[in-house]
Amino acid sequence: IIPSGVYLDEDGRAGAERTQRMGLQMMPRHGTRELRERLLGTGSHVLPVVLLFGFLSTYIPVSDPISPEVIDALTHPKSPLSAFILVLSVVALAPIFEEMVFRGVLFRFLRLRQGPRAAAVISALVFALIHANPANLLPLFGLGLVLAIVVERSGGVLPAIIVHALWNGSQLAL
Fold first, then answer.
1. Where are the alpha helices (DSSP H) in 16-130?
2. φ and ψ at 157, to 5 degrees?
3. Cα(41)–Cα(62) distance, integer angstroms
4. What are phi and psi of 123, to 5 degrees?
């Protein structure tokens, strides 16, 4: 599997049908105009919820399991290069990887067996628990639900990657 969501067959050719069957296509299966309408409609409902969850998560009175030294390193990078690497990792790489795993694979696998609602709840719960941060369990669960809805409505993981990147970027900015 290649990060772009393209699966290569044994002879090295792209297997678009297999990629779609596995739920790993990056772009939704809709036309450009329909995609734009779906993203704008979904985004206008989802973005405020995502930003609200991010804002509220800063006020949950649970101790953060991350050590003060790690928090200091994240909030006060030592050089411009380390700041760039931090932003790249948090805002780009983590959303791409996590969306491919949690929505591209887990959600779609569960959806075939349990239906979309159960798949959304289970994949959101696993997403929240895997972060191992009690302070953000509820906001991450909510984010996982929102991201599953985005994938379900759009038909691809790219819109969820964008929403996830916005979430991580807002968390980094706060």
1. 16-22, 32-57, 68-75, 80-87, 94-99, 108-114, 116-130
2. -90, -15
3. 34
4. -65, -35
SS3 of 6-20 = CCECCCCCECHHHHH
At 40 the pLDDT is 55
Contact 130, 159 (CB under 8 A): no
**Can you list the pairs that 58-65 forms with residues at least 24 positions away whose Cβ atoms lie under 8 Å?**
58/174, 60/135, 60/136, 60/138, 60/139, 62/134, 62/135, 63/134, 63/135, 64/133, 64/135, 65/132, 65/133, 65/134, 65/135
Q: Which residue in this structure is represented by tokens 């985004």?
A: 43
Give the predicted TM-score (pTM) of the model.
Answer: 0.68
Of 48, 82, 60, the closest CA to residue 167 belongs to: 48
| pLDDT greater than 80 at residue 153 | yes
Are 54 and 167 in contact, with CB atoms under 8 Å apart?
A: yes
- Percentage with pLDDT > 90 across the chain: 30
The position carrying tokens 């929505």 is 103
**Is-contact 154 38, C-beta < 8 A?**
yes
